[in-house]
Structure formats: structure tokens, C-alpha cells
Amino acid sequence: MALIRLKQINKTYVLGKGAVTVHALRRIDLSIDRGEYIAVMGPSGSGKSTLLNILGCLDRPTDGQYMLDGQDVSGLDDDALSGIRCRKLGFIFQSYNLIPELSILENIEMPLYYQGQSERASREKALELAERVGLTDRIHHKPAELSGGQQQRVAIARALVNDSLIILADEPTGNLDSETTGDILQILDRLHQNGKTLITVTHDREVGARAQRIIRMRDGRIEKDA
Asked: Looking at residue 47, what DSSP letter applies?
């Protein structure tokens, strides 16, 4: 059974008090198996980010069916979707989305806090992941005291802390220089080698070249899947 299956997914937005309808996704059919490394590519406005938001349960389709790990999540309410994000999904954003007032360790721990795990268990898991991404010596720093690449490492550790089924990354190297991009891509490669399912939205050909499957989008449709 596929880990993800989309059937005839549409997403429309109505703007200007109904004056304009934007068709962000049009009849998307997509199947993703466990352990795949996928890059979603295409020009701006092609529907890449909308697709990622639906896959990540950050948004709901206008119509169609989304099966995630055997469960139909298409019509779930916000509370139910929040629970699924907490248990099954990890996110890496271009802007990092770290909480500036918290230390690096506290940022990594945050998803476990929402799961109600004990402080001791959360701390041990966060320390383990900080070590995996090479930030053991930075755990008591605040995000503003770290470089962009280090902040992205924190975001990766946070995405992994709940042992998520799927890692979704939106332009994970968009704000990084070429050397730091290489470091982040190596971390993503290792995650894939360890069996994680990775779905990355990117304009970067180097990022796309690391994936085993590229989905190209245009005008809200899947133009090519190879």
C-alpha cells in the first residue's frame, strides 16, 4: 500500500469577494511509497507549495481524496489535522521557522511538548538529534546567534524529533550559500538512506538531482513524473 495517495485533488481559492477564482491544483493524481526521495519542481505559481501544504495537512483540498498511511484525511477538521502533523509529519522551511526566544535545544524539543512527553524523555531525544546534526556545542544558544546553515540544521532536527513518517521540505537550501547547501543536502541524503520518506519543493537543480524521482508541475497540474 502506498504511503500517500492523492485522487483527483483540486484546490481553488476565491478572491475579491468571489470576483476571481484561482485554480491552484487541478485533478492531481499521485502515489508515493515509503522511503522515496521526491523533488517537486516547476515555475513560480505552478502549484508546488499548494501541493506541499496539502501533503503536509497544512491545508485541505477543495475536493478529491487524500489517503495518508491508510487514512482518508481529506475532510478532517483542524484539530484532527494538527494531531496528524504532530505524529506523522516533519517540516523544514526556507525561513527555518524557529522560535527566537527559545534555545536551540528547546526549539528541537517543541513537537514533543505538544505530544505530552516527559521533560526528561524530550531532553534526551533533543540532545541525540542535536548531536546527529552537529550542533552539540550550540544547544544553549538562541537562533539569532547561529548562521543560516546552523539554523536549518536545527529545523531538520526538529522535523525528526517526533520520528515522523514523512519529511516535507520547502526550499530547504533557498537561503544558503553553496558550501552550506552541500552540507544540508548530505544530511537529507543520510535521512533517505536511513529509510525516511522525503518530499522537497525546490527550484534548485542540485537539490533535484539528489532525488530519485522528480515531479514537475505547471499551471496546477503534474506535467511530468519521472
From this structure: S
Which residues are bridge partners to 5 per DSSP? Answer: 31, 67
Query: What is the pLDDT at residue 99?
Result: 94
Q: How far apart are CA 49 and CA 170, in angstroms?
A: 7
Please state, as a whole number, how many other Cβ atoms lie within 10 Å of the Cβ of residue 94.
Answer: 17
For 98, half-sphere exposure in the C-beta direction (CA atoms, 13 angstrom radius) is: 29
Q: How far apart are CA 209 and CA 94, in angstroms?
A: 19
Cα 70 → chain centroid:
19
Give the Cα separation of 130 and 156 in Å (integer).
10
d(CA 47, CA 23): 9
β-bridge partners, 166:
89, 197
* Mean pLDDT taken over the chain: 92
Q: What is each CA distance from 21 to 8, 75, 174, in whole angstroms?
A: 18, 21, 30
* pLDDT confidence bin for 86, thresholds 50/70/90: confident
Per-residue pLDDT tens digits for 174-206: 888 888 889 999 999 999 999 999 999 998 888
116: amino acid identity, one letter: G
CB burial of residue 200 (10 Å; 0-12, 13-18, 19+): buried
**Confidence (pTM):** 0.90
Q: Could you give the domains of the chain?
A: 4-225 (3.40.50.300)
| pLDDT computed for residue 12 by the predictor | 95
